[in-house]
Amino acid sequence: MRQAGSGSPALTVLWLQSGGCGGCSMSLLCADTTDFHGQLRDAGIDLLWHPSLSLASGHELTALLAEITSGRQRLDALCVEGSLLRGPNGSGRFHMLAGTGRAMIDWVRELAGIARHVVAVGSCAAWGGITAGGSNPTDACGLQYEDEHPGGLLGAAFRARGGLPVINVAGCPTHPNWVTDTLMALAADGFQAGDLDSLNRPRFYADQLVHHGCTRNEYYEFKASAEKPSDLGCMMEHMGCKGTQVHADCNTRLWNGEGSCTRGGYACIACTEPGFQEPGHPFHQTPKLAGIPIGLPTDMPKAWFVALASLSKSATPRRVRLNAVADHLVVPPVAKKTRLK
Question: Is the residue at 1 inside a domain?
């Protein structure tokens, strides 16, 4: 077993993929490092096995699972990517772990009872996600939630041996650093119950809103709204953006060092939140009541929003109003004398 730099045992991690697209693993490969395995090793993390990143497969994996279940190999963190497929009729036979003759849900239940920590990687593993949408013929769910309802595969009362519930690193996909930072915190034994929000997401990213750091915030402040794709304006009023309600730091912890959904011209669809896959309306449209968006900013009373929005629109500078409905800056900021007051 590899050792952490401090001399303490490395955090051993087993990563399993269940019902999903593998997008969180794809995202993980974009972690901000030139040496992914070296980054984990330097942080004191021993990745025992990952279905895409490990050379071992087949009988080597089954031998590793036997070592873990027998207690000969310590398991500190079980990471599960993808929703848990309980069908048909609770048998789990829609997803069998190849070569074992057992359903993946049975393996996850057993390994979750052994691991010191259990981590749901992505919104599918956390809430059920895309796989649990629609009529859900596979009876997909999250590890400890079904959408916003506690329960899932392991049950609301589940606690891993380390004392924590399932850590929900939600996102579709997850930002690679949400995953690596979570594992690093676990390796440093620096993760406590107070570090999780009310939905058991790590607070280091879930205490932020996507709205924070959005490059369209000036348009939002003046309620200068985009009217069609490619417009520069705020996408909340007409284009379905939920960034003022969604818990994530996407616009301050940029993807690939420079991007985010809103910076790329796409509305935030709330992918870190339970039930995002079925908002009840097209993702690119904002549902309204009497002309007012139903989804208002977090913690903002409706009457305040209506009053402030009306005031903001009446004070919108011409520059902001014109640029909001263009795909490039039409009117630049006015040059002022250098000694600003």
Answer: no
